[in-house]
Specification:
With 302 residues, the chain is of the alpha+beta class. The chain has two domains: 67 residues, no CATH class; 200 residues, NADH Oxidase. The chain is built from eleven helices and nine strands. The chain has a seven-stranded antiparallel beta sheet, sandwiched between helices. It has a two-stranded antiparallel ribbon with strand order 2-3. Strand 2 and strand 3 form a beta hairpin. Helix 6 packs antiparallel against helix 10, helix 7 runs antiparallel to helix 11 and helix 9 crosses helix 10. The protein is globular, with a radius of gyration of 21 Å. The termini are far apart. It binds flavin mononucleotide. The site of flavin mononucleotide has 10 residues, from strand 8.
């Protein structure tokens, strides 16, 4: 199977700062990419990714994401999957029974209803400048978390966010830098109780920035949410479709965070560029049963 030519060209363009439009989050990284490219071409790496009739890294066959995409289509693979053992359904909620638990104030949603939805969607932007001297209130944090994936139907535990099979594979870990009444550190949102569980106290700005490819605003925003996925929650039922679904759901949750922050007049930015292992280590998760998927900063705009 041969990829269309346009895909080849888009994939193969080197990361030159000359040809690539300046973007706030590449900053110095563009220079490093360019230097990396020069060194790589010096040792012949470019020949692997230069268009040619022979196999190259740009071939669809070499893109493990596309291989997965194809393999996870309904059909033959699915039929085989039904006779495989995909394990048991794990608990719907993760808990930290030994952690300090902090009640979040009831979200005052009347304050979130202006501007209206259409205006909120039209105003949504990614913000990377935050006011470094102010703190968020606990109520603001509570509102954002409730709108992100809070429970909206108590009889079925359905939430603000859609979820395949209502299996809710996602967890949110707020890394708090400046929130009134909270010591800085890593927290876990206990959705059922609408509480925070203190997983790790301390100033985590530097390890977070380091894990986030030196994007400094990760430490400047008042809070950075880490969205993780517990794959087995979805996998026991949806088998090889799981990875697709969990990522789709992370997108839904991310958009909820974007719109909640915008409606509250806060800055927000989704971040997909991070080193997985250090971020998973920061959360004390193994990166396999549970893995960090998405970062979202929230805070007062600078
Ligand atoms: C999946 C995803 C990953 C992203 N990763 C980053 C990132 O690592 N750093 C960053 O500053 N912005 C990141 N962004 C934000 C985009 O750069 C931003 O959405 C885009 O420039 C359009 O701007 P807007 O959101 O203001 O409309 C990401 C957005 C998405 C959806």
């Amino acid at each position: 199977m041969h990829p269309p030519q346009i895909l080849k060209h888009r994939t193969l363009r080197p990361l030159s700062p000359i040809h690539r439009p300046a973007h706030p989050w590449v900053k110095n990284d563009a220079i490093y990419c360019w230097q990396f490219w020069r060194i790589a071409t010096g040792i012949g790496f470019d020949r692997l990714v230069t268009p040619s009739d022979s196999a190259s890294l740009a071939d669809v066959e070499n893109d493990v994401g596309l291989l997965y995409h194809r393999w996870s289509q309904p059909g033959y693979g699915e039929a085989i999957a039904t006779i495989l053992n995909w394990g048991q359904q794990p608990p719907l909620y993760k808990t930290y029974p030994d952690a300090l638990q902090i009640d979040l104030p009831a979200p005052n949603l009347a304050a979130v209803t202006t501007p209206d939805l259409a205006t909120t969607i039209l105003q949504r932007r990614s913000h990377r400048n935050y006011n470094g001297s102010t703190a968020l209130s606990l109520l603001q944090l509570s509102q954002v978390l409730h709108l992100a994936q809070g429970i909206t139907d108590d009889s079925r535990d359905f939430r603000t966010v859609p979820s395949s099979g209502a299996l809710y594979p996602l967890e949110i870990y707020p890394i708090v830098h400046r929130v009134e009444g909270l010591e800085p550190g890593l927290y876990h949102h206990a959705i059922q109780q609408h509480q925070l569980e203190l997983v790790k106290a301390g100033d985590l700005r530097q390890p977070l920035i380091k894990a986030g490819l030196s994007q400094d605003f990760l430490g400047e925003a008042q809070v950075c949410f880490v969205v993780s996925g517990i794959f087995q929650r979805t996998r026991w039922k949806y088998h090889e479709r799981t990875y697709r679904y969990v990522l789709m759901e992370a997108g839904h949750l991310g958009q909820n965070l974007y719109l909640a922050a915008t409606a509250l007049n806060l800055g927000v930015c989704g971040i997909g560029a991070f080193f997985d292992d250090p971020l998973n280590q920061l959360l004390d998760i193994d990166g396999e049963t549970e893995a960090a998927l998405y970062l979202v900063t929230i805070g007062e705009r600078g």
